[in-house]
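Re: the 470-residue chain
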Amino acid sequence: MGVQGRICWAVVVLTLCMGADVVAVTFENNGYDLLVAIHRNVTQDPRMITQLQSMFTSASDYLYTTTRKFTYIRRVTILVPDTWTKDPSWKDEGEITFTDADVRVDSSHSLQGNTPYTFQPGQCGQPGRYILLTPDYVLDKDNGRDINYGDAGRVLVHEFAHLRFGVFDEYGIPGSRQHPVYYVDDTGKTVRPTACSTDITGNFINEVKDSSCEPVDSKDVVNKDCYFLPNAFDNTATTSVMYAQFLKEVVHFCESDPDSGRMDLIHNPNAPNRHNKMCSERGTWDVIKEHTDIKGGNPVDISNRAPQFNVVYRQREPVGNTTICGRRIVLLLDLSGSMKENYRYFKLRQIADQIIRDILPLGTEVGIVVFSDSARIWANMSFITSSADRQMLAQGLPDKEDYGGGTAIGLGLLKAIEMLNGRGKSAENGRIFLVTDGEENVTPSVNDRYSDIVRSKVVVHTMAYGDSAA
């Protein structure tokens, strides 16, 4: 990625009053802690909280079953927006933001409608970014949620498998040549639904009256009006969560070679679905059991799997004529001598200037730390409340004559954390934006103090200049 690409990436990361798109899921003692956030444009409705609680309680039971007693949902924090009238029972929370959330309640996706959706840009086994639920889905506005999607807890587990484990859908897409809803098997004669299990029973349905669902030929299934409707009752298949979690009999993920010898769990590698394409025809459980949450762990008997729920409220605090908005952030800038090469110092100042003037919203608390042979505070933490504040901070950025010396990235990170911890505040959930050309050559190194950095619970974004900076 070139410098211009890195600059564009930085702009995206720091957009508006929100943190970065990072998954906040935590896992401990077989239990997940999740953050659910409601967008500030969602109309206040007390049923939103109770519906979310019901959905995640159901999801915890199903997750426990489908992951074979390895995991469940231990705790769910629900972040209520500042546009809602505060309930006295809600706790104040000034740090977490909407885009920190694992599950977001927001307006519908342009292509998905009210269908729950997971933003999953990575490869097989890599986590997604977040799950999106629409207000209409959560509130079951048309009273057709269970009919159209099945139990909401099961739907959440399907999406959570995308989010946490990096597995993909095992069903076909109507009208798709790449992932058709059905295919012709190896015999060249039998038409099968695109599914994990070959045991799924049901019927091919054509939306065009009195038309069949036969493919045009054995190699190209193109009938876009056809779909497969599994039998809603007495289906013998127990797999898979990524295909038909709405069937009550489906309580497992597929696997390629079950240790139990159970043939009902066998994965179908021939189905032309997205999961087989992305995961080299491995079963979903084959991928999941290699995840760090499962591998090396042990199943446990947990009788009470109902999550603990905390409802928190983010109260915007006034600062002058504006309000506190977004994270507290420290710009951590490399002033080492090597930054003079190839005009890196100019590029550093350019991006720092852009962040201060154009990216950080009014109400952001920001400071600057610089490092070379050592680390020091360049500008103390202060709020941006006006254009004049932006101007003053940007004009005070380092110039060419300020550069020289070594590269003490570890000391710089520790000084930035120290500043975030100042004035009686906590560094936790604060942001550090590190700009460096790498080539760390002053102790302690980042690795030397890695545990201290992680323990502070800050989020570090990096911009790298030069071939050795990665």
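The longest strand covers residues 72-80.
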